[in-house]
Amino acid sequence: MIQKFDVVVIGGGHAGIEAAYASSKMGCKTLLVTIDKNKIAWMPCNPSIGGLGKGHIVYEVSALGGLMPKLCSKTFLQSRMLNTSKGPAVQGLRLQIDKYKYAALASEFLSKTPNLTIYEGIVNELLTENKTVSGVKCEDGSLFGTKVVIVTAGTFLNGCIHIGDHREAAGRMGESPSLGLSESISKVLDLKVGRLKTGTPPRLLRSSVNFDVIEKQNAHKLSCLFDFEQVEPVEKMSCYITSTNEKTHKIIQDNLNKSALYKGNIKGVGPRYCPSIEDKIARFADKLMHHVFIEPEGEDSNEVYPAGLSTSLPLDVQNDYIHSIKGLENAVITKPGYAVEYDFIQPTHLKHTLESKNLKNLFFAGQINGTTGYEEAAAQGIVAGINAVLKIQNEESFVLGREESYIGVMIDDLVTLGADEPYRMFTSRAEHRLVLRQDNVFERLMPYGKKLGLIEDKEFELFLVEQKSKTKILDLVEKSGKSADLYKLFAAIEFSDAVKEQVKEILKQELNVDLSDRVLLGVHAEVKYAGYLAREKKEIEKAKRYREMILPSSLNYKTMQGLTLELREKLIKFKPKTIAQAQLIPGMTPAAISILIFQAKIEEKNK
Questions:
Q1: Inside any domain, residue 567
Q2: Are residues 44 and 152 in the same domain?
Q3: Is residue 451 part of a domain?
Q4: DSSP secondary-structure letter at 175?
Q5: Which of 29, 300, 325, 369 is the most exposed place for a label (fewest CB within 10 A)?
Q6: What is the C-alpha separation between 470 and 475, in angstroms, rounded?
Q7: How many structural domains are present in the chain?
Q8: List of residues 6+ apart from 124 with CB closer than 8 A
Q9: Which of 38, 157, 56, 58 has the alpha carbon at shortest distance from 99?
Q10: Which residues on adjacent β-strands are paired with residue 204?
Q11: What are phi and psi of 145, to 5 degrees?
């Protein structure tokens, strides 16, 4: 007998749980199929969430009512704000997470979520009817009928791990891969899947690390994290920093021929911005050292994670290079590092809703779309979950623009340009990053979350109160004038804790408002960037006017004057249909865009 659901989500990773949580909260009967119930929301690599660009994405998931920020607030071990030497637009919150408590809490949350059922199994076939997905079939023979399927398979599609010459079929160390689903996807979509690679470092026995001789990385006392609700700033466990040295580099250089990557055993393309240690040594031979961050995996865990040492070298070589690093001379490897290859689909086959262009009601989210990272996966998961429900309800799709969110930037990049390597979010990818700050994220996106039914009434009421406070402060600053102390404090180059205290003292006397650091940082950014923000908003309006301008297929980029040879080649390759798509091409300049607009207008006139 076929059991029927509104939505079936394949995969219980960070994309999968967001998709399942969103669709069930929005009222749809949802099934989450996962290989191992004990590994839901697992962190197979770095035990941390956030960072530059990635932190912005988690904030946006929070503003939309997602699960990841809620879990972070209750399981973090240490909080840090990165890039504090620069302005608030490019700073990034990063939390060290207890990965065991995080996974356990995620399971607890999901088990209490109405409309959600969790099934342990491996989906190996998509069922279709009239060019529409209609269900899934599992390896154990179970059949589930559904209106919508969301595939969030992570690294499990034909997953294969590498340690030197050792090769093993697995989605993660010790976990079975999904061997049939990739072929089924390729068949029903009539497209060829690609191959990508990622990796992880060895894990070390905590008691075998000499923390006395390496640098301690202090936490920042932050009360406003990813979740809207404020938390008590605490540091439960510390992180430490050491580094590789010339001896480390020589060991790796001498053994490059033993690396699965350099022997040619790995065909998948790896992440450019998170390379393996052997890739770093080979590509950056002039570097005398690379930082290694020693991070706890959990309060009750006896293992630590040496970030920066991802590898596919044999275990004996891993031991040698680990022991060459300061503080790790006697370190014991509890689990070897390894590389993992897996199948993915080109995201150009998706709409901005993350639904397939080739098969109705089939959505994809996470690493299967060519991304890397828990944060990017979670963001895609919530967008896919939301749009799955809206599709069932025959409601208008939910698509975020590049000018209003990092999520919009990421999805636009993926579906327009595709992925020839694992995609990672950076602040530099957002052309309007000045207006896409962490401090104004709830202002930008929480109304969407409320409208979609993912934000509770009580939380939204608190948000409205906070917005009123911010408006009152901005009005007071404007009325006080640029010569006033309040204006000067908010416009300070460095908005330090001492400056915040001075501001709070003045506001206490002038206004009766509840203040959070988020409000103060928001006002600081609005005051400091006032002129730039005004100009940025004009640019956004200008871009909107030309965004949908069609680039005629008759345009001859090969002979177009004023464009560099590189840009001509890229335009011929990507064939952008609109000015908006052309703007996404790497290396595209405002001057080149002006030429395209001019030539498009001439072409239209000559028709």
A1: yes
A2: yes
A3: no
A4: B
A5: 300
A6: 9
A7: 4
A8: 137, 138, 139, 178, 179, 180, 181, 184
A9: 38
A10: 304, 333
A11: -85, 150
Q: Could you tell me if 159 and 178 are in contact, meaning their C-beta atoms sit under 8 angstroms apart?
A: yes
Instruction: Please report, for residues 249, 292, 501, the alpha-carbon distance to residue 245 in angstroms, rounded to integers and kept in the order given.
Output: 6, 11, 43
User: pTM of the entire structure?
Assistant: 0.92
Count Cβ atoms below 10 Å from residue 394 Cβ, excluding itself: 6
For residue 308, give both structure tokens.
């920066």
Per-residue pLDDT reduced to its tens digit, 5-60: 999 999 999 999 999 999 999 999 999 999 999 999 999 999 999 999 999 999 99
* Dihedral in degrees, nearest 10, Cα atoms 95, 96, 101, 104: 60
Same-domain check for residues 374 and 388: yes
Q: What span, in angstroms and rounded, lies between the C-alpha atoms of 204 and 336?
A: 9
How far CA 292 is from CA of 220, 223, 254, 309, 328, in Å, comes to 20, 28, 20, 7, 11
Note whether 99 and 47 are within 8 A (CB).
yes
Q: Do 112 and 227 share a structural domain?
A: no
Task: Note down the domain range covering 576.
Answer: 548-605
Contact between 49 and 71 under an 8 Å Cβ cutoff? The reply is no
Helix axes 374-392, 68-75, angle to 10 degrees: 140
pLDDT tens for residues 138-186?
999 999 999 999 999 999 999 999 999 999 999 998 898 999 999 999 9
- Examine the domain organization and report whether 558 and 473 are in the same domain: no
CATH label of the domain that carries residue 103: 3.50.50.60
Query: The domain that contains 566 carries what CATH number?
Result: 1.10.150.570
3-state DSSP assignment of residue 473: helix
